[in-house]
Amino acid sequence: MNIIVTGGAGFIGSNFIFHMLNKHPDYRIVCLDKLTYAGNLSTLAPVMDHPCFRFVKADICDREAVYKLFEEEHPDMVVNFAAESHVDRSIENPEVFLRTNILGTQVMMDACRKYGIKRYHQVSTDEVYGDLPLDRPDLMFTEETPIHTSSPYSAAKASADLMVQAYHRTFGLPVTISRCSNNYGPYHFPEKLIPLMIANALNDKPLPVYGTGENVRDWLYVEDHCKAIDLILHKGRVGEVYNIGGHNEMKNIDIVKIICKALNKPESLITYVTDRKGHDMRYAIDPTKIHTELGWLPETKFVDGIQKTIQWYLDNKEWWEEIINGEYQNYYKKMYGNR
Ligand code: NAD
Ligand code: TDX
What we know:
Layout: E1 2-6, H1 11-23, E2 28-33, E3 53-57, H2 63-73, E4 77-80, H3 87-92, H4 95-115, E5 119-125, H5 152-171, E6 175-180, E7 183-184, H6 193-202, E8 207-210, E9 216-218, E10 220-221, H7 222-235, E11 241-244, E12 249-251, H8 252-263, E13 270-273, H9 288-294, H10 302-315, H11 317-324, H12 328-336
Parallel strand pairs: 1-2, 1-4, 2-3, 4-5, 5-6, 6-11, 7-10, 8-13
Antiparallel strand pairs: 9-12
Bound molecules: nicotinamide-adenine-dinucleotide and thymidine-5'-diphospho-beta-D-xylose.
């Protein structure tokens, strides 16, 4: 089996590559990544010399480069992680989100049509369903929940999902889609809530909580997400959408307090800042379908996962310090300077 993994130098894609090389030693994994600000080759250093791994620096929107790679590799499957993934950046500058998340998806699928493929898998998000009210804990997103997006990021991801379904129905492309809740774990870029709070706390910097901090996210340890995608590739039904979630809803403020406690830092570092525009209130995934059809369940409990994650950031300071000492400083000033 030869699998092209796009966006594999990012957070979830890199964890997926490690999982696949470990679990399927006879598979070849080819990572296609543009290495944007969010892509990091040092993340892939442990597998760079692996005989079953190849890294190719290219943009998923670059049709010529993508077709060339298909001609060289004849992939059996494509797993498309590549995306602009940060909601706050999509509010500042939506355009690149439309380009990569929608047009890039189209180029990858066109290549699959042209050269043939056993499976095209689209890594999507629970954000395509919009948000849920805090006072209706009984409501959860199922695969039947209508698409109802809030941010330019989620609108671009939802557009891509619709194109994937269109390519299945119109051209018979053998697709699957997974929609996952918030991931956390090693190699998470420090612009996102959990790694940002860990890095700031370790540097005794303010911990910027948006709005009241009451917003709820459904957190899943990244390895559990990778296992779910692996299962869908091998046992999922073509044309289907699978929701993936941890049954682990938590308020942002509670997460930040857990991080303070684990690092022995005072809660006085917590600073409430101006809310995100259009901030989604609550996400909650109902993962019944993937559980009953494929037998998937999250394995890592949040208490263990967050401990492992914090320990990883303590043990790998050079990885995130190199990021936050670079261009990230301009980003941080722009996004948090006057907040
Ligand atoms: P990330 O931002 O950490 O990584 C994205 C990767 O894609 C980077 O390596 C980047 O260089 C690459 N990339 C960006 N534009 C590209 C382009 N035009 N061509 C080729 N490569 C490009 O993102 P992540 O958090 O790992 O998310 C991966 C996928 O999972 C995304 O599709 C995202 O929408 C989805 N997702 C993420 C979460 C989450 O909690 N992080 C939850 C659900 C779904
Ligand atoms: O500094 C912050 N302060 C804060 O209060 C940051 C960065 C975030 N937040 C809040 C906003 C959200 O309610 O924390 C929550 C989580 O924020 P993010 O880490 O930015 O994640 P979110 O917006 O929920 O989106 C994530 O999950 C779904 C990923 O980034 C997406 O790619 C994925 O699709």
